[in-house]
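Purpose: get a first structural picture of the assembly so the mutagenesis plan has something to point at.
Setup: two entries, given in the order below. No constraints added.
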Amino acid sequence: MVLDVIGVAITFVAVFVAAWFIGPFMHRVFTGERVFLSPVVRPVERGFYWLSGVKEDQEQTWVRYLVAMLAIQVVSLLFSYVIFRVQDHLPLNPMGQVGVPADLSFNTAVSFTTNTNWQNYTGETTMSYLSQMLGLVIHNFLSAATGIALAVALVRAISSRTLKTVGNFYVDATRAILYVLLPISIVAALVLASQGVVQTLKAYPVATTLEHASQTIAVGPFASQEAIKDLGNNGGGPFNANSAHPFENPNGFTNQFEIFLELIIPFGLVLMYGRWIGNIRQGIAVGAAMALLLIGATGIAMAAEQAGNPALTAAGASQVSSSTQAGGNMEGKEVRFGPIYSGEFLAATTGTSTGSVDSSHDSFTPIGGMVAIVQMQLGEVDPGGVGAGLYFMLVFAIISVFIAGLMVGRTPEYIGKKIESKEVRMASLAILVDAALILGMTAISSLAPGGKAGPLNPGAHGFSEILYAFSSTTANNGSAFAGLTGNTLYYNTMLGATMWLGRFFEVIPILALAGALAGKKVVPAGRGTFATDTPLFTGLLIGVILIVGALTFFPALALGPILEHLQLAAGQLAH
Amino acid sequence: VPNVRYMPLDIWMLGLLLLLTVGSFLYVAGLRRLP
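Result (structure tokens, whole complex):
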């Protein structure tokens, strides 16, 4: 167990070191400076602009930036929808998968477009290779690039001294793919393939087992998909078991490598932010809040899972870690990962917007499962999705300086920009959209017949399954308490709509906030300025996030995981 | 035509997508008008 904890610590240190290099690299990329990849990538980039007619130096207002972003999303969503529907008439379908039903195609297309990757289907029995490689992976790159571009637009607005524009969406998204996502994905895919992650276009082989039974083994071109699945915080695996499947995540090293991939861009972006505004300490202050929240969440999840299930202890089963067993709550977990690494994976996948899983979240202890739910409900800010984590954290930073300003009677300002009525309204709106969607959709689904038909379990855990689903889809995470039967017309529709609203109805006020900040003059820091590059601000930021989250979601959590925990401790759990 | 039996559902799903898209653009327009 001690070695596992050391492994977790080494992974986090590796993430912080990598982010320290990736952050400044991304700053150079998005400001158009030359980087070491430029000799190869720059001609390709210019070729894209020439082909698509994009004028590289043409800046967009926040409205035009949003319109460009939304147009790309709708067109690419329809493209994937059609591929899923007619995949049985398209090539690269050696297993003869039939066309995906309409409601499931809609849910899946929205899911991958919004970076959620909620999967109401079983990949190996539903999707052709073409659907996997083109219909899904295109969004793994594009949705991640969209998140990064939106964060870059907000950073540009905060740092802007005079401009009323926030950049060019097409240029930002293209650079995110060509300079950041694609090169790292290629290297990561090779690393994963070297460890045993499968990569082939051949049909599923059939093996004869020791009992002479015939077994079909699902394979596919998946090492390349796995890399961007984690790096882009997408999370949608080609196999139903996701990263618990040995062909997606074969060993302890790949498990930690996948966590590493999930975390490096979100932490890198926050350092890019510090670099961009000319004060790296501003980035470190925000990044420290992310890191402390993540470490806290990881610690709670690992401790809860290692402590195990009190019902099993009461029944006389040993859950103590020893030389012969990992101990703890092993239900739904891979023996090769154990409770510590599974707890870390859960914290990383829900602290970011990844949503891939190396164990069954539904089988975690109530407290372990609650860590996942809470992180998603807080808006995924520790460190959050690629781009989404940074822009949502900056929303909380603006709320924090506003609250600090109210408390001490100072005019709130952030990075030299006065925070006024419009900025606070937009920031509040972004937070309220999240809360309204999670709580509203959970309430409706707890009452509607179609919603009540979903959960596998009765009582508090059944409610948790619904709460988890809408927390996950609103936050564009994609992981699930998989006991919930989601592939129904009701859930395909409701969850699909929630993913769309959770992504775009949150992003739109944030870009409006960027537009409001972009044109503002910078006020020089004076004696009355509240410093936002100090440990005090980091503490305030964490406090605001936790208080806003607790005030909003505690009643719902009390009906789900908290009640389940108390029932379990009292030996009164209903089954 | 693949999955003919699902065609009415296709219309319902694409209608929902249209609704979400139009709603998003109206949302942008609404926030743009805010002072």
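The radius of gyration of chain A is 23 Å.
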